[in-house]
TrEMBL record:
InterPro entries for the chain: PcRGLX/YetA-like, PcRGLX/YetA_2nd, PcRGLX/YetA_3rd, PcRGLX_1st
Organism annotation: Hamadaea flava
Protein name: Tat pathway signal sequence domain protein
Residue ranges occupied by any PcRGLX/YetA-like N-terminal RIFT barrel domain in the UniProt entry: 43-120
Cross-referenced PANTHER family: CONCANAVALIN A-LIKE LECTIN/GLUCANASE (PTHR40081), TAT PATHWAY SIGNAL SEQUENCE DOMAIN PROTEIN (PTHR40081:SF1)
Domain PcRGLX/YetA-like central beta-sandwich: 130-487
PcRGLX/YetA-like C-terminal alpha/alpha toroid domain segment(s): 493-901
Length: 905
């Protein structure tokens, strides 16, 4: 990382009031105009998993070096042979000098090329642009192939979908089944009540020419007017596309003791125009395995209509007129059953079942079973039909696909995010408190199970989940190959990515990563260790079945060496909930490698931790929950889990709007300190939250706030000015503290966005303070703005954390006590080595990396097969997720910062 010295730009900021803006200056105090003539670098883009074989749509983000690209730059996209590709672009973030930091782009291609070049220029327009027509009570969105009518109120999100003049689907609603209690008596069944979507607002976020986005908000409401489960749905349309992508988010607004979700899904009606023998049902199972059926089957009969007729039906093609068949079949068609109802239910990660029946009121017939269905189905006929898919279908079990009444004039399709055939969603807390009624008792509980319990704190009220669905309006029943391609795109949506070299040279995310480099044998060993750790966790997800609606995307915290399982049932040792930043380990591992498997692993984690582990409603909105047996169980609700730093990488690489929502929601999370004191159980002096003197830690608390403020500022969000002022105000007042970050905490004023002055040198250092994104956020802000005292304070902390007690006391007035996580902090020493140009610190950082209290070179760096557990698996009893995340980040950042000064263990 190249040191940046810009000490004259903001030297006089100590007394700047909250509303003052930064000057519009470049990295060396040069005006933005000086960059206008700079050449915008070309970026060579490739597909994450290789080019799709069928038409594809994608959205991605590309970073730019500071000062290189004007803020209003336009871009063009082309293939290797220079062919122009239609593209839509918009800004995601800006550098402080006003130049572009991240741009977002969207394209829709009918024949995907292996690679593309993004360059400055005028974008090509699609042959037929996607358009949005705004009427009084609805919107019409037209891709040039399909058209959808979106209602502005009522139940139906999408009232109709046409392909040309043919209506393919209608009456698209969200559906929910609710139980008011969970029946514990096996002989009784709790009644269920149905709720449908009830729209409260519709917003057009983008209107073309390549991409249109419509945001719909509302709640689920029953016939009696009772509402719950707020939702946000985004619909994505691309020029020339025949599908609609849906991002479905709901927030759970109950405390878990009542109102249980017994079913949650998306439902459409599908007109059925064709003869029963020309109507088809398809489900894609494991891989490209496929259920291929007709509502009225004419294969396998006692009498043969003709080989060509049978072959056509299996292929989904229109059958010849029955008058041309063998008349022994034609005259008896009325006696062939019409199968109108089909269900594929995936109630576990390793098993799905398919059944069918003729119609309601008659018995179900088992069709087949399988392991892991794709979540894709189709119903329709030779004149057109409706395909539907749910991403992560088996990973987020229990899920289900329903087709009903396909033998009538209107079939019904429901994609269940929570299957009504499963047990109701049980969100109740998992124990009765065990007498932990006071703080001393709760701290004793923490001592034994590592769970920080507190009555009424283990609530799911306000957590959320986002699901991704896609719907196709097809002109005819798709071929097996086409439906297989659809299933592949549902499982793994096409994603364009930037080359690693461009990500590195853009110096985004603090510049704390460099390309994978095995040229040195010592580096190669570290790379092998990094590969082992990722591969081990990747296999553990599958072997230990870390799947399920609320669980998928998370990993476990600590291993049980006796049972040879992870401590899934022991307090704070169970689900990890971002403890010590595995999210960042994975994202930085991707940024330096470009590996698809790492991207998808990190993507699933980001989807989970940003939604399930964080509150989005209620008094704790903006806070996350510490690790535990249930994701929401622990009473520690903190900034360190909700921190925006865990979402930033995914947001900027994909321009995902839902992740953008999560980032925006955190801008005012400093107000949560008024309602919840994170240190309430261990304070020795009385404390009442004061909006002008809030006790906020300079580590996990401030870094979470700073990440949100930085993101809002660089995105030029609606609160960007306030966020920038708070970020700079806290940086300046931390800098003014005699011991800077070593002080440990400060009294923060919500109105001024500054910490109160501190007169005396205070020492209060925690091993956790810098391990939840503070390293990365400090590197980013120091690289962005010049606040010399802040950089000095951070470098002091970096130098001294792993230093001797004598050195600590000599500089700060007291030593830091007995600290742990020294290997994870080796990267702080490395950062100081680069900024201060000190080779002795670089050598010390590598020694800390090898001999700290983490993973050492002498470990086996292998796993062993285990056959004594419920399922055969593998174990590495020396592995813990805390250490894995810190080893991964220390290795990646040390290699980037001081890789040229590496020493052998």
């Amino acid at each position: 990382m190249e040191p940046i010295r810009r000490r004259t730009v903001l030297a006089g900021l100590a007394g700047v009031p909250l509303t003052t803006f930064l000057p519009d200056l470049g990295p060396l105090g040069v005006s933005t105009a000086a960059y206008a003539a700079a050449a915008v670098p070309d970026v060579h883009l490739t597909w994450l998993e290789g080019a799709p074989g069928t038409p594809a749509t994608t959205t991605w983000g590309t970073p730019w070096p500071q000062g290189a690209v004007p803020g209003d730059q336009t871009f063009q996209l082309s293939t290797a042979d220079g062919g122009a590709v239609p593209m839509q672009s918009w800004p995601l973030a800006y550098w402080p000098d006003g130049t572009l930091k991240w741009s977002a782009h969207a394209t829709a291609v009918s024949a995907p090329a292996d690679s593309y070049t993004l360059a400055a220029g005028t974008p090509a327009l699609p042959e037929t642009a996607v358009t949005v027509t705004d009427q009084h009570s609805y919107l019409d969105v037209d891709t040039g192939v399909i058209r959808a009518r979106i209602r502005k109120n009522g139940r139906e999100l999408i009232s109709q979908i046409w392909r040309g003049d043919v209506e393919i689907a209608r009456k698209g609603v969200l559906v929910n089944l609710r139980q008011d209690h969970i029946e514990e008596d096996e002989e009784k069944a709790a009644p269920r009540d149905r709720f449908d979507s009830d729209i409260t607002s519709v917003t057009v976020e983008q209107s073309g020419p390549v991409r249109a986005v419509v945001r719909i908000e509302g709640t689920h409401t029953n016939e009696r007017g009772k509402s719950w489960l707020p939702f946000t749905v985004r619909l994505y349309f691309y020029a020339g596309a025949e599908n609609i992508r849906m991002m479905h988010t709901f927030v759970y607004d109950r405390d878990g003791t009542r109102d249980y979700i017994a079913g949650l899904g998306v439902r459409f009606r599908v007109p059925m125009r064709d003869a029963a023998y020309d109507r088809h049902v398809r489900f894609v199972g494991d891989g490209h395995g496929m259920l291929t059926e007709a509502v009225k089957g004419i294969t396998g009969l006692r009498r043969d209509p003709a080989a060509s007729v049978r072959a056509a039906q299996v292929a989904g093609a229109k059958l010849a007129d029955p008058s041309t068949w063998d008349q022994r079949v034609t005259t008896r068609l009325q006696y062939i059953p019409e199968w109108g109802d089909y269900t594929l239910s995936q109630l576990s990660a390793d098993g799905f079942t398919v059944k069918k029946r003729t119609k309601k009121g008659y018995g179900w017939i088992g069709v087949d079973q399988g392991r892991r269905a794709s979540g894709v189905g189709y119903v329709g006929g030779v004149s057109g039909g409706f395909a539907f898919g749910l991403r992560d279908f088996w990973q987020r079990h229990p899920t289900q696909l329903d087709i009903r009444q396909a033998h009538t004039e209107e079939a019904e399709v429901t994609v269940w995010l929570w299957s009504p055939q499963a047990e109701p969603m049980d969100m109740r807390f998992y124990h009765d408190g065990m007498g932990q009624d006071t703080y001393p008792e709760q701290l004793q509980g923490l001592e034994i199970t590592y769970e920080d319990y507190e009555p009424a704190f283990g609530t799911p009220y306000g957590i959320a989940r986002t699901s991704e669905l896609t719907f196709w309006a097809l002109a005819a029943t798709p071929s097996a190959d086409r439906l297989a391609d659809i299933a592949d795109q549902v499982r793994t949506p096409p994603q364009l990515i930037n080359p690693v070299g461009h990500l590195v040279t853009s110096k985004v995310f603090g510049g704390l990563f460099a390309p994978v480099d095995r040229s040195n044998p010592v580096k190669a060993v570290i790379e092998d260790h990094l590969d082992f750790l990722f591969g081990f966790y990747q296999r553990q997800v599958d072997q230990r079945h870390w799947y399920g609606f609320w669980d998928y995307g998370d990993i476990m915290h600590t291993f049980d060496e006796d049972r040879l399982v992870w401590r899934y049932d022991i307090g704070g040792y169970a689900w990890d909930n971002s403890e010590l930043s595995p999210d960042l380990w994975l994202w930085y591992a991707f940024l330096r490698s470009g590996r698809a498997d790492i991207f998808r692993f990190a993507e699933a984690m980001t989807r989970h931790t940003g939604e399930v582990d964080v509150y989005h409603l209620g008094k704790w909105a903006g806070l996350g929950t510490r690790h535990g047996v249930q994701h929401w169980a622990d009473s520690a609700k903190q900034q360190r889990i909700s921190t925006a730093v865990y979402r930033r990488v995914y947001y900027y690489l994909t321009a995902d709007e839902r992740t953008g929502d999560l980032l925006s929601q955190l801008v005012d999370s400093d107000r949560t300190f008024l309602v919840l004191d994170p240190l309430r159980k261990i304070r020795t002096e009385p404390y009442t939250p004061d909006p002008h003197a809030l006790s906020i830690g300079l580590g996990t608390d401030w870094s979470g706030l700073a990440a949100a403020w930085l993101t809002e500022w660089e995105r030029h969000g609606p609160k960007a000015d306030l966020a920038k002022a708070k970020l700079l105000g806290t940086m300046e007042t931390i800098a003014a503290m005699p011991n800077g970050f070593v002080t440990g905490s400060g009294l923060y004023d919500l109105d001024t966005g500054r910490f109160a002055p501190v007169a005396a040198k205070t020492v209060s250092v925690s091993h956790l303070s810098a391990m939840f994104g503070q390293v990365e956020i400090c590197a980013e802000v120091i690289g962005l703005v010049e606040v010399p005292g802040f950089e000095n304070a951070w470098l002091q902390y970096c130098r001294l954390f792993n230093a001797s007690k004598t050195e600590q006391a000599a500089e700060c007035g007291a030593n830091f006590g007995n600290l742990i996580l020294k290997q994870g902090h080796a990267r702080l020493t490395a950062y100081a080595a680069v900024r201060l140009n000190r080779d002795d610190l670089a050598t010390r950082a590598w020694k800390e990396f090898y001999t700290g209290d983490g993973y050492g070179p002498a470990l086996p760096w292998t796993s062993k097969e285990v056959t004594s557990t419920l399922n055969p698996t593998e174990a590495a009893t020396w592995v813990s997720t805390n250490t894995t995340a810190l080893y991964g980040l220390a290795a990646i950042q040390n290699l980037a910062l001081i890789g040229d000064k590496i020493i052998a263990p």
